[in-house]
Please model this.
Amino acid sequence: MDASLAKLKAVCFYCTRKVKYAGGFTRDHVFPKSLGGEDKGNMVDCCYECNQFKADQTLSQWLQVIETMLKYQLPYKNYTLTILGQVRRNIWRKLHSKKGGIK
Ligand SMILES: [Zn+2]
Model:
């Protein structure tokens, strides 16, 4: 593995946690592939846990789930409430991106 590439991919798009090894990374279809999401302009690097957590939900659906967890202070697996807050912020930012946010 190219060291500079590993460094580039060191932060998860959703939770912003650092991933210690390149194999811990996955490529997520922001708009789910199962719902017809394409590859082009619809892929982000994220950690395996976020990919599993999001599964085939749209960003809006995932945001609702996370907001409910935060409201009732329910952590998910090894996500602290702080990390959930970061995920919420990054989803929100993506949804409201001026450059054609992905719903
Ligand atoms: Zn993540």
Observations:
- The chain has four helices and two strands.
